[in-house]
Automatic annotation (TrEMBL):
Residues 432-468 form the Flagellar basal-body/hook protein C-terminal domain. GO terms for cellular component: bacterial-type flagellum hook; extracellular region. PANTHER family: FLAGELLAR HOOK-ASSOCIATED PROTEIN 1 (PTHR30033). Keywords: Bacterial flagellum, Cell projection, Cilium, Flagellum, Secreted. SUPFAM superfamilies: Phase 1 flagellin (SSF64518). Belongs to the flagella basal body rod proteins family. One of its GO terms (molecular function) is structural molecule activity. It comes from the Bacteria. Residues 77-297 form the Flagellar hook-associated protein FlgK helical domain. This is Flagellar hook-associated protein 1.
Amino acid sequence: MSMSIAVNKALLGLARNAQATSVVSSNLSNASEPGYARRVIVGDQILRVVDPALLSDRRLSDAEMAAAQTMQDYAQRLDALAGSAEDPGSLQNLMSIFDSALLSAAADPASEQRLNAVAVAGSDLAQAIGSASGEIQAARADADTAIAKDLAQLNALLEEAASLNQALARAQPGTASTASLFDQRQKVIDAVAEIVPIRTAPRDQNGIALYTTNGAILLDGQPATVGFTPTPVIAAQMTEANGLLGGLTINGRAVSSGPKGPLSGGRLGAAFEARDVMLPEAQARLDGIAYDLIERFGAGGPDATIAPGQIGLFSELGAPPGPPPVPGLSERLIWNPAVAPGSTDLWKLRDGLGATAPGEVGDAALLNALSDSLNALRAPTDPALGGSVRSARGQFAAFGASIEATRILSEDALTRFSARNTALREIEFSQGVDSDVELQRLLEIEQNYAANAQVLRSVDEMLNQLLSI
């Protein structure tokens, strides 16, 4: 071998050592960086090591987990709102207090203090039901805001992915900078996958197309624009179906936001499900409970002094409600101001709301009848409560049980999807950067560097000897 060939090979070896050192250094420093793919050198090119099938499965799992997390968040809000019979201030607890107050007043109907306790308990119950309704609508508004935020992020991510496609089309293949562009695009697509479940398809010049699993084209050359009009304040009667809440558009064309819609399945779809299904169902049941209370103590009930068309102990802002369902009735439920706490007419709780003068102070018949009506088993008028025959307390307990069941189901789903996601990420991580392997590779590079450097030193010594002759 001539000295020139030896020098050229040594210099080439040093250049490759420098490239290999750079790759190993990059792998070690970015081992825990999301979206970073391990680099290897093949020939003179730097390539990323990625399992496309695993990456696709993990992204679909990301969407499932994000959806499950969103549903659990709203289910927990409902569960905290409903509470249990043992929780002070919960709906079931206040219902029990109201029932106990009626029994206590019936035991001593002459006691102004006990009659006032009935008024306080009834007023507190009505206010708590109204507050719960308001919390449900606030949660719907939060879901609407989350939808708007996710869609703003989605549109920005699609623009960024399109820009990275263009940058990769111009990039020189097999370089470190090109690998970094691929990493950036992977991170962008990973973020998209949490919002909506996606599939990818390769395109010419390192491009990529994005489709939702339900068939919507998000990116294929040009990015799609997903539209939505947020609604800052939401009331119970407002739905997408009646045009009072915003729906989805893709490039200006209206699409379904339901569970089978083109953008369903991820965090975005879960927010729509919370806004349009889970929370409205809870609202409808609460409205049914309010309607049941109004009926139990209204005209035709135990108080014969209430004329048809007049209000009983509970009403819709001072008037009888129309036929059910009455969206938002629970938020408008009030205790009859004629027997408000501290009123001088509390005797009407004992003698009848329509009575014109106090009766016998020891007459507990009406108070006992009111308690009996509260505990009477009856089929609800509002279809949202189903057809089961229950007492008023039973309706509150059933409401709490349904909310708890929703929470448990959401927790089970999150646990299941989280376990799958964790398993996929562990497999993905195992195929990523192994620090021990990279350090071993660094030792090999050091040895190769020393060998190439030794060749150059030997050639230098031979040249010096020749020149000294």
